[in-house]
Design brief:
4-stranded antiparallel sheet, globular, metal ion binding, dioxygenase, oxidoreductase
Length: about 350
Amino acid sequence: MASNFQSIPVIDLLLTNPPTRPQLLRQLRQALTEVGFLYISNHGVPQSVISDLQAVLPRLFELDQGRKDAVALHHSPHFLGYSQVGSETTAGREDRREQFEFATELEESWAEGQPRYERLRGPNQWPSAEADIRCSIERYIEELTRLGERFLHLVAEALSIPPEVLFSFLSDQHRLKLVHYPPSEISADKNGQGVGPHKDSSGWWTFLLQASPPNVKGLQALNRNGEWIDIPVIEGTFVVNIGQAFEVVTHGMCKATTHRVLSGSLERYSVPFFQGVRRNLTKSEALNALKDYIPIQQPPSQSDVGANIDSAFLRGRYDTWGESQLRTKIRSHRDAGRKFYADVFDQYINDDN
């Protein structure tokens, strides 16, 4: 569990220059081990790439319902596509958000006899006649893939781990969500759930673009005292947080911090990029790869909210990251799970461990 932080640190990546590099690494290590959330500035992603993506967000969500339904997520065994408001659940409640999910563009390669989780790998569903939207999204995925790799080198240095060890965990496919939180009536639901309390289970690291103006709030992280701390928009930055897989391999030294999004009276756009973890990663590999660099940690006490977060891979029942991911996807998107994974649907839905 994260420490009793009251704000989220900002790490300036320009400090990678030799005279200031030790300062950067100290700041980064502290953020990784005590907070689990940080902002990064001067990150190297061209502003034109970010601006182009922000410009297509309203257009994408303003598409008529028929065009959205044509690329609905329930058509995809890879859990890629459009989800309408209320179609995804977190912490047992419906999320008030609509979203498009995309990934590194790959051909479908799964065949009978392969592990079910390999079916998660596959192509996107693209809205028809929107070539410029696709171009902006694919360019953004390429830039964030490169940012993730640059950042991982810094993480390795900050934690004194050989970078090739950390890179050995990465997948061939990373995921991107374009999320729209419609405005909600606060008087009707003062604790409206944009997305409920959770730890990121979709990747190694999450790089989040808060794509709305600074006056639009909603994102919060949970500290050890059980206080929800606001993570406001800071223009020119990405919010970066630890995924569950990284918590596993670091034996809890670097915690995946519980967070949520509250609905508000203003609409909000958010773009999380999830750096992928290879699907065949086993629990044994995850627990042993860093044992020579990081001692096993005793988990500190945490708030009731944080303690009850569903995290299948952390709890140890599933031997591979891919299977724990498949379970999470099926539980979150039950229509697609029932359609494509009927043989394990009931097992994953009724399995709370």
